[in-house]
Structure formats: C-alpha cells, structure tokens
Write a structure and sequence with these properties.
Elements: E1 3-6, E2 11-14, E3 19-28, E4 33-39, E5 41-44, E6 51-56, E7 63-73, E8 76-82, E9 101-102, E10 104-110, E11 116-124, E12 131-134, E13 139-143
Antiparallel strand pairs: 1-13, 2-12, 3-11, 4-10, 4-13, 5-9, 5-12, 6-11, 7-8, 7-10
C-alpha cells in the first residue's frame, strides 16, 4: 500500500503543544512496516520563532526511527533524529519568518498489533503568538515493501571501519544499461563515538 498526501490549504499551529498537520495523516495497518517521508513547506510568525516537528501513531510500535532537517534560512538548517512519538527531532530556536522554506522528516515504523493513524505533527518553539504555518502543497507519502519491484532492506547490523567507502551490504541493486532510475536510501545508523561523523555516497556502473 502506498499513500500520497498533500496539504490542500494553508494550516497553522499556535504555541508549543504538538498538533497534527491537517492533510498529512494516513491510516496504517497493524503488524506492517512502513517507510514514510513528509516535506512540509513552512513559514513562521517571526524569525525568532522556531518550528518543531515530530510524528504520532498507533500505540506500542515494535520499531520507530525518524529524523530530518528543519530549514530556517539560506544555508541554515538543523538536523536531528528520534525514536519516540511527540518528541521534536530538533529543538529549533530560529524560524523562517515570512519566507517559505522546505523541511523534511522521514523514517520507518514497524507497527505492532494496533492499527491507527500515522501523523506528522508540528509546534512552535515559543508560546502564543508563536505560530508555524504549513503551506498549501506540503506533501508526504508512505509505502510498504510490496509497493516496489525492487526493495532492499538491511537484514542484520552492518559496519565499516575507517575512512574508505564500502558498500552497505544488502543495499545494492542491479541496474540495466540505458535506463533511468530514481532511488531513495533511508539509513538508520550509530557511530562508535559522538566525535565520529558518518559519511554516505553511492556507486554504480
């Protein structure tokens, strides 16, 4: 099952309490794994009002990881990741003001025995009159492995040591000559220390 979502008219939230972004919600089945991506286009009431994003869903998922980037200006963005509902991916303290910017939030949910609704949520960093606006055309999608003829998934933890790039085992696919492809890899990772950065690239024919 794949679902495409789109905000049909400007939406807003005032204050610091998380609320669902109207139109960016979808029903999900029990005992099913979904990959999701939300791309809100936002403004805020002031450049001193940060936008915060999270997700919510059915109780007791067996796995949840999501993260993304919150853009506050040209060349300015904050990045973060979470493993619990209703927790800001980053505690942003600067906003876009009246200039529309794009953000993205993506992740994976292994849903447990409860069906329900997966929702993108947003909040302002400061109390009223702090306001975040999700603009018309903001979008999202979610899908399962059965939606694709080619779907790859890491079946056990993998690692690389040192600075040389290496293939991520299980995340490789054959490609045909003279053919266009669109690809999307979503990697959940840890490092041996918080002073060790991770780098990613792709390789091909």
């Amino acid at each position: 099952m794949s679902v495409l979502l789109r905000v049909t008219t400007d939406r807003n939230v005032v204050g610091t309490a998380f609320a669902d972004v109207t139109d960016l919600t979808a029903a999900i089945d029990a005992s099913t794994t979904y990959i999701f991506r939300f791309v809100p286009q936002i403004t805020t009431n002031a450049t001193t009002t940060g936008a915060r994003f999270s997700v919510n869903g059915p109780a007791s998922p067996t796995g949840l990881r999501y993260g993304g980037g919150i853009v506050s200006g040209v060349g300015a963005a904050n990045f973060g990741s979470q493993t619990a509902y209703n927790t800001a991916i980053f505690a942003t303290t600067a906003g876009t003001g009246a200039t529309a910017r794009m953000c993205w939030i993506e992740g994976l949910i292994r849903n447990g025995s409860n069906s329900g609704t997966l929702a993108l949520r947003y909040a302002a960093e400061v109390a009223s009159p702090g306001q975040v606006n999700a603009l018309t055309g903001s979008s999202g999608y979610l899908y399962t492995a059965s939606d694709f003829t080619e779907f790859v998934r890491v079946t056990a933890d993998r690692n690389v040591v040192g600075t040389a790039f290496a293939d991520v085992t299980d995340m490789t696919l054959p490609v045909a000559a003279s053919t266009d492809y669109t690809f999307h890899f979503c990697v959940h990772y840890t490092c041996n220390a918080n002073t060790t950065g991770a780098r990613f690239a792709v390789n091909g024919p």
